[in-house]
Amino acid sequence: MTDAAELRARTQELLTAYPPAGTDRTDFLKARFDAGLAWVHYPVGLGGLDAPRSLQAVVDAELEAAGAPDNDPRRIGIGLGMAAPTILAYGTEEQKKRFLRPLWVGEEVWCQLFSEPGAGSDLAALGTRAVRDGDTWVVNGQKVWTSSAHVARWAILIARTDPGLPKHRGITYFLCDMTDPGVEVRPLRQITGEAEFNEVFLTDVRIPDAHRLGEVGDGWKVAQTTLNNERVAIGGARIPREGGMIGPVSRTWRERPELRTHDLQQRLLDLWVDAEVARLTGERLRQQLVAGQPGPEGSGMKLAFARLNQEISGLEVELLGEEGLLYGDWTMRRPEHVDFTGRDAGYRYLRSKGNSIEGGTSEVLLNIVAERVLGLPAEPRNDKDVAWKDLAR
Is 116 considered catalytic here? Predict the structure, then answer.
């Protein structure tokens, strides 16, 4: 049984063999993965040691104290938070060995090809088709709201393989090569001026059957693993006290006393407490992950994350008054990740509007919490047993 003392010893051995100051960043990260210190709860040989998930913090603290490089988790968040746990749960041994190491090291960026123009909140209504042709699948369709598609090497993709079945069935999950000539990525410019999102057109994209994840027709089941992990990754990220959106507005409050009013003070106190409760709830959720896979509770965390970000950013703009109406830079860029705290208040206010849409709309997540957490009666679904091809569109 691996314990904290053993992990500290293993980490020191890594630091001795690969001193961070004199080792190439990528070489260090590969050595860390091979030593089982990437994600300690993963299996031996896949970046882990079959250790309790809670002990990852021991390794991270030792490496941070030594000035070791990280794998830039914001840049590869989709791979770490969504693709990796799904590949671990449903991938073949060959798939795990092929994809997990370059994913964690950051050599290969991932994106998520799930939502479509006609299948966002109702994701199971997706219409992208995958037709088998021998040992390959030919995929045609359109995906939208695809973060990082412009820099991604691989994508997790769900497509319809049997339109004669009801919409939640007949879907299959694939690992798609974004360099295939049939993949076209177009930027979607947002209200922030940036285009971190994209729309992706798939035209006769050929995916080997060896890159299918799970059984044919089990795509919805596999996708639930991705979606549950996605919501934990978005809403349950580990942050320090006053981390995230509450940090900038708290600093402004302390440094700019001339902006304060009694009403703003009361609202800031309420939001500060809510942010701290959400942070501690996230810690509890991560402790629950030690015992198994994330469940629908992650949807509640993601709901809280979206509401808090929007309310806090609105308060910050109001606190700044006329300054809050300024916007620093409307330049069209295609960033590799979202930078909430490194930009100005106007950016935070505008970008947070997407938090209640991305990763599952707040309305859908409220249904999930009601039905799967609180056990309330499900909404009637008249199309549950209707073949997808017969649905009105």
Answer: no
